[in-house]
Amino acid sequence: MHAPAAPAPLRTGFAIDVPDSLLASARGGERAAFEQLYRWFERPVYTLALRILGGGHGGDRDEAADVLQDTMLKVFRRIGDFHGSQGAPFWGWLRQIAVNEALMRLRSRRRHGLEVALDDEPWLEDHAPPPPAAADAAQLQRALAQLPATTRSVLWLYHAEGYTHEEIAALMQRSTSFSKSQLARGGRRLRGLLDEVKESTHA
Fold it and tell me: Does the keyword Transcription regulation apply (predicted)?
């Protein structure tokens, strides 16, 4: 459970209602059904992967495209395993696969010493909200790109996708304290970067 002062998660781009008839056709191996699912979820999966892996540079886009392909291949292979038990939506199941694929690549970077997180200052739990939705999208994207991918992924999973710290910790194979510290540090750093842009604009 999030603390009461925490911001409400944004509506995820994955929240697409998929008709049972389409899922039944996909389980039956109909190519047209698979193509329809791919078209519906192509953009949200790619966007999620890009937010987790990087700020939109060429290599990040290539990796995000790989995550999209790997995610949809797994969805197609495992679609028979999805039965919507306890009312769970199909998009939630698919989103979990996409998150796992993206974080698996992030963990690979960490193993090879290619990724670091913000760890250069003491932290206190920070419940300040993310930048307002009215903030300039391009400025926000540039600011996010300056954060380490691990930190940026925690911010995105918590604020945009609505994951709890416990869920993020499990996904990233880290501690709950790590998730909380990255959210606090990343949020402060992000707001600082946006303030710098604002000041330079009005200078």
Answer: yes
Q: Which residue has the tokens 């303030």?
A: 195
pLDDT of residue 195: 79
pTM (two decimals): 0.69
Do 106 and 180 sit in the same domain of this protein? no
Distances (CA, A) of 123 to 118, 143, 166, 174: 10, 20, 18, 17
**What are the helix (H) ranges across the chain?**
20-27, 31-53, 58-78, 90-111, 137-145, 149-155, 165-172, 176-201
Q: Which domain holds residue 81?
A: 13-115
Q: Which of 27, 38, 51, 47 is nearest to 155 (CA)?
A: 51
Residue 4 is assigned to a structural domain of this protein: no
What is d(CA 64, CA 137) in angstroms, rounded to the nearest whole number?
A: 20
Which residues fall within 8 angstroms of residue 178, CB to CB, at 6 or more apart? 117, 169, 172
Give the pLDDT band of residue 10 (cuts 50, 70, 90). Answer: very low
Domain termination site, one of 78, 96, 115: 115
